[in-house]
Amino acid sequence: MIGERVKKYRQEKRMSMTELAEKAGVAKSYLSSIERNIQQNPSILFLEKVSAALGIPMDALLHDQQENNTVDREWVKIAEEAMDSGITKEQFREFIEFNKWKLGNK
After folding, report:
1. What is the pLDDT of residues 12-64, one digit of tens each?
2. Which residues belong to any copy of the Sin domain (predicted)?
3. CA-closest candidate to residue 19, choices 59, 53, 57
4. pLDDT band at residue 74, thresholds of 50, 70 and 90?
5. Per the CB 3.0–4.6 Å rule, which of 37, 43, 56, 66 could disulfide with 3?
C-alpha cells in the first residue's frame, strides 16, 4: 500500500509527519490519512511532492521494491540518451564488451 511505503520512507529519513508535510507542501491531515490507509488514492502531484521531499524516486512509493533494486536515475537517463541517438542494443553491447576488453588490457 502506498501509505505504508510513505510511512516507511519517512521513518527511514527520521522525519516527523509534520516535517514531511511542511517540506512537501501538503496538509498534515491528508498525509496522515494516506499513511493510515484511510485515503488510498493520492494524486500524482501529492506523490511527486512527497517523493521529492523524501529524496526518493516516485516509483518507490508506487511499487513494492527494495531500495537496492532501484535503478539509478542517471543510468536511466544515459540509456534513454543512447536510444534517442539511434544506438541499437547490439551496438551498445559491443561498446560494453570493447570497454571490458580495453580495461582488461591495461
Report:
1. 999 999 999 999 999 999 999 999 999 988 999 999 999 999 999 998 898 87
2. 62-100
3. 53
4. confident
5. 37
Domain boundaries, the chain: 2-68, 73-104
pTM, two decimal places? 0.60
CA distance linking residue 20 with residue 5, whole number of Å: 14
For the domain bounded by 2-68, which CATH number is listed? 1.10.260.40
Angle at 46 (CA atoms; ends 45, 51), nearest 5 degrees: 100
Q: How far apart are CA 53 and CA 51, in angstroms?
A: 5
**C-alpha dihedral over 39, 66, 74, 49, to 10 degrees?**
20
Beta strands in the chain (DSSP E): none
Handedness of CA 31, 17, 56, 52 (dihedral sign): positive
The pLDDT value given to residue 71: 64
DSSP state, residue 85: T
